[in-house]
Write a structure and sequence with these properties.
- With about 450 residues, the protein is α+β, with helices and mostly antiparallel strands.
- The protein has one domain: Outer membrane efflux proteins (OEP) (Up-down Bundle).
- Strands 1-2-3-6 form a four-stranded antiparallel sheet, with no helix packed on it. Strands 4-5 form a two-stranded antiparallel ribbon.
- Strand 4 and strand 5 form a beta hairpin.
- It is elongated and about 150 Å long.
- The two termini are about 20 Å apart.
Length: about 450
């Protein structure tokens, strides 16, 4: 079923790419969560843990085994009253035996409970892997969109500066501006070309990272589009976010499950000091085929024997001394229980710190977005005004270049603020363990 679903996702991806339709964030998440090999390995680990539970469950049921043996015994020498005729024989035996553990000091129960707890821990680790992969895809997608926007802004800057250079050269030929203005315009154009190359390289690097997370071959023709409008809603409180994290964060669940499993293993070790009671029941078929007939001195008789019988009994075994092995093993897992408890507290602290940082980053990015919007509007109006003034002959090339520089800076600040806001939101979702997008 999963294979069919994966093939369907790949088919839809191929159709979107061939049709020239850009991929959205939701489509990237869906593809990555189904296709990422590291996540697939984590999924196989959950299936392995499920088999471990079934392995331990088998100890509750009786075991049934059978054996058959055939042997030939030939006499070499005999001394004393032994008759060699009783030694030379063919022996055949068949056994069917059933064994049921009646009491094992709760070892079987605790071992089974431990396997079920570890299965839950592995499932939590799988959910954590999904959460982290979704976070990486989401943040990389936003970086791709930011890099794409940077390329567009850099291309616009190159276009504007190319016009500025042409204007400066025309004014210089008419001796309306000094040569230094032409040189400044050319330097700024060269710098804009360099920034464009850097922006294109950064976009390609982010695209490579995104395709890698989705485990898909790099396709230069594939485009990505952000279907979500930036909406700055009401910021949640730290207490609300932290409560959500305590409920949803998979790593906290995993550490708590591992602590419980270590506690179960400690009980298993102590139970080794208790007796084990087994019920054995078996059917035996034994045949002895002697090489020669027996004699009473007067007549001969057949010595061959065939014995078939049932046997049932209860066996009690008790290990009275093991050099303290089980005791120290129990103490070892008690320490493991305390270790996982300490790791749980540390994880809580890390999550609480991450939530606070994300909330601070969101608040800062919100202020920058609002400020950058006004600055971008002003920078555009200023550049348009300087361009018109230069064409009217009442401004200078230097003033236009300054206006161009401020416009580029305003666009960069706005794009960076938007990216930081979205990255902070993704960080907050990661810290709280929310999986609303997938």
């Amino acid at each position: 079923m999963r294979l069919h679903y994966t093939l369907l996702v790949l088919l839809l991806f191929a159709r979107c790419a061939s049709a020239g339709q850009p991929l959205t964030l939701s489509q990237c998440l869906q593809t990555g969560l189904e296709n990422n090999p590291a996540l697939q390995a984590s999924r196989f680990k959950t299936e392995t843990a499920d088999r471990d539970v079934k392995v331990t469950r088998a100890d509750f049921f009786p075991s049934l085994n059978t054996s058959y043996s055939a042997s030939r015994i030939s006499n070499i020498s005999a001394q004393g009253p032994t008759d060699s005729d009783y030694i030379d024989k063919d022996a055949h035996s068949g056994i069917v035996k059933l064994t049921q553990i009646l009491y094992a000091g709760s070892r079987i129960v605790n071992t089974h409970d431990k396997a079920k707890i570890l299965e839950q821990a592995v499932q939590a680790e799988y959910q954590l892997a999904r959460l982290e992969l979704a976070y990486n895809i989401e943040t990389t997608f936003y970086k791709v969109m930011k890099a794409k926007q940077d390329v567009i802004s850099a291309q616009e800057a190159v276009t504007r500066l190319s016009e500025s250079v042409k204007a400066a050269e025309a004014f210089f030929r008419k001796e309306l501006v000094p040569q230094v203005d032409v040189l400044k315009a050319r330097v700024d154009l060269a710098d804009a070309d360099n920034q464009l190359s850097i922006a294109k390289n950064n976009e390609n690097r982010q695209r490579v990272a995104l395709f890698s997370l989705m485990n898909l071959p790099l396709d230069p023709e594939t485009e990505f589009t952000d279907e979500e409008a930036l909406v700055m809603g009401e910021r949640p409180t730290f207490e609300t976010c932290f409560d959500t994290a305590l409920e949803h964060r998979p790593d906290l669940k995993s550490l708590d499950f591992q602590r419980q499993a270590a506690d179960k293993q400690s009980s298993v070790s102590l139970a080794k000091y208790l007796p084990m009671v087994k019920l054995d029941a078996g059917y035996y078929d034994i045949e002895n085929d002697y090489a020669e007939l027996g004699t009473t001195g007067i007549s001969f008789y057949d010595r061959d024997q065939t014995n078939r019988y049932w046997q049932a009994g209860v066996t009690v075994s008790w290990d009275l001394f093991d050099g303290g092995r089980s005791w120290y093993e129990s103490e070892k897992y008690e320490l493991e229980t305390q270790r996982f408890g300490a790791l749980f507290k540390e994880a809580r602290n890390v999550i609480a710190t991450g939530i606070r940082k994300a909330l601070y980053s969101i608040a800062e990015a919100e202020q920058r977005i609002l400020a950058s919007k006004d600055a971008l509007v002003a920078a555009r109006e200023n550049y348009t005004a300087e361009d018109n003034r230069l064409k009217a002959g009442v401004s200078t090339i230097t003033a236009l270049l300054d206006a161009q520089s401020r416009l580029v800076r305003a666009k960069s600040n706005a794009a960076n603020a938007t990216l930081d806001y979205r990255l902070a939101q993704s960080e907050l979702r990661l810290m709280t363990g929310e999986q609303t997008r997938w």
